[in-house]
TrEMBL record:
PANTHER family linked: MOLYBDENUM COFACTOR CYTIDYLYLTRANSFERASE (PTHR43777:SF1)
Name of protein: Nucleotidyltransferase family protein
InterPro entries with a match to the protein in the record: MobA-like_NTP_Trfase (IPR025877), Nucleotide-diphossugar_trans (IPR029044)
Domain MobA-like NTP transferase stretches: 7-168
Lineage: Bacteria, Pseudomonadati, Bacteroidota, Chitinophagia, Chitinophagales
Species for this entry: Danxiaibacter flavus
One Pfam family in the UniProt entry: NTP_transf_3
Superkingdom of the organism of origin: Bacteria
Length: 197
């Protein structure tokens, strides 16, 4: 069994929402805490949380002593620096890491069983990227084996991990995750989510 790190991207400023989405409450915990807890339940080691906007305020709300933080000073330049830094931090913590999962904090229906399914499909297919499929696209959470660690660390500007997925489709397996299309970008999104509690 390969040890799997999880990198949780939580550095953005939630401009369309008007307040930090990382701290929105759902089912008794913040969206960020939910992502951390599900990663932990799936046995993630290490768990790296990438923070940027309001990093100090958000870090104070995190309840787990085995979470490592990567504070991305360049968060305003785009997602790439957070991915690159988060992956670098995970490798610094465990240089023998074989695979990692990149996830975000605003997909409220991400679960430990989904993370475990990504790992299972990777073992079964031997593909080096396993992404979630929803709403006619593929995206996070997404598992990468070490074959792509250097690609992730080389991302720049606004580029996200999806660029690597799309340019290596022959090396991608997909896991159906229809609730993945629900993410929280606006007040209306959040209001809709709260009504499902």
């Amino acid at each position: 069994m390969h040890k799997t790190a999880t990198v949780i991207l939580a550095a953005g400023s939630s401009t369309r929402l008007g307040l930090p989405k990382q701290l929105l409450a759902y089912n008794g915990k913040t969206l960020l805490q939910h992502a951390i807890d599900e990663a932990a339940k799936a046995g993630a080691d290490p768990i790296v949380v990438v923070l940027g906007f309001k990093a100090e305020e958000i870090s104070e709300t995190i309840k787990r002593n085995n979470v490592e933080l990567f504070i991305n000073a360049g968060w305003e330049q785009g997602m790439a620096s957070g991915i690159s830094g988060g992956v670098g931090k995970a490798l610094q913590l465990d240089e023998k890491l074989e695979q990692l999962i990149i996830t975000v904090c605003d997909q409220p229906f991400v679960t430990a069983s989904l993370f475990n399914e990504l790992k299972k499909v990777q073992r079964e297919t031997q593909q080096h990227i396993v992404a979630c499929a929803y709403a006619d696209t593929i995206g996070t959470p997404v598992l990468f084996t070490k074959k792509y660690f250097s690609h992730l660390q080389a991302l720049t500007g606004e580029e996200g991990a999806k660029k690597i997925v799309k340019t290596n489709m022959d090396d991608v397996a997909a896991v159906e995750f229809s609730p993945g299309e629900i993410d929280i970008d606006t007040v209306d999104d959040y209001d809709g989510l709260v009504q499902t509690e």
